[in-house]
Design goal:
Spore Coat Polysaccharide Biosynthesis Protein SpsA, Chain A, about 40% helix, alpha/beta
Length: about 300
């Protein structure tokens, strides 16, 4: 089967990182068939740089996103779902018909040379694989650290690749906060596997959740958990883990604040009851998998 890969990068003010990302993309052992860079009204030289790179690298195309409705909080574009809106604009402009796989790649993610060759090989080896990606390495407190995620479930939204069948089955990605949790849960509900590969590591040149302020990012994460129907017991336990992140203590409080604020404001959640049950069933399974074998046997 001839696999054709479309990569879409929603970017805003990425002039500091974009050329490094583009050089890594050009060095791929299996480059994308088309890389669409969609500029979301950058106020720096991002669009000019992207246009210059498109003259050098033949598979690059550049678009400018349309004007979005006014943001509810201009300080926090991620919470206002600017990235999925921009991604969807790029996808609608290009269409899925000529591609078998579509990847979303942030403009500050530097990929290893064999990244897409490996990702496409994994899709070829597992017909049920609907969503796949690698992990991020970030500079934290002057040390490079690899993110830790449940690789059998979560695929980071900055490095996410879909099969066309999966993307169509889930109805595309939603233009709201928590889109990258909703899509992978829905994919598993539709019978697809979602997986991250620990040996595929990209360099993230901007610390996680820092685009609009670190504590605002932690609060956004808490609001995402509310929207995606994560239960209070999980949120409480998760806040303890988040609290270990910098700034220590405050990060956990910001996470809880985001969840509570979304609940008090009655922020629209995923209303699908099947989705709610799937989230809780998966959480129970993950907790059970971490229990000692004797405890699992005793709990049936």
């Amino acid at each position: 089967m001839d696999r054709r890969l479309l990569v879409i990068s929603p970017v805003r003010n990425e002039a500091e990182h974009l050329e490094r990302v583009a050089r890594a993309m050009a060095a791929q052992s299996r480059p994308p068939d088309r890389w669409l860079i969609v500029d979301d009204h950058s106020t720096d030289d991002t669009q000019t740089l992207a246009m210059r790179l498109a003259q050098e690298i033949p598979f690059i195309a550049v678009l400018r996103a349309p004007e979005h409705p006014p943001l509810s909080d201009p300080r926090d574009r991620l919470a206002s779902a600017a990235a999925p809106r921009t991604f969807n604009f790029g996808l609608q402009s290009t269409g899925l018909r000529n591609y078998t796989h579509v990847a979303k790649l942030d403009g500050d993610m530097e990929l290893p040379p064999g990244y897409f060759e490996r990702i496409l090989a994994e899709f070829a080896a597992d017909p049920r694989l609907g969503m796949a990606g690698g992990l991020r390495r970030e500079l934290v407190r002057d040390r490079w650290r690899l993110e830790r995620v449940p690789t059998e479930h979560h695929v980071n939204g900055a490095l996410k690749c879909y099969s066309r069948e999966c993307l169509e089955a889930i109805g595309g990605i939603e233009e709201r906060l928590s889109w990258d949790i909703i899509d992978e849960t829905t994919a598993r509900m539709r019978g697809f596997r979602t997986r991250s590969f620990e040996d595929l590591v990209a360099i993230h040149h901007r610390p996680w959740a820092s685009a609009d302020g670190t504590l605002r990012g932690r609060a956004r994460y808490g609001a995402s958990a509310y929207i995606a129907r994560f239960p209070v017991y999980w949120v409480t336990a998760r806040s303890l883990k988040v609290a270990a992140s910098r700034p220590a203590g405050l990060s956990g409080l910001a996470f809880l604040y985001g969840y509570a604020k979304a609940a008090l404001r009655r922020t629209p959640r995923v209303e699908d009851e099947e989705f709610r049950r799937a989230v809780r069933r998966e959480l129970r399974g993950r907790i059970r998998a971490r229990l000692p074998l004797a405890t699992r046997a005793a709990t049936g």
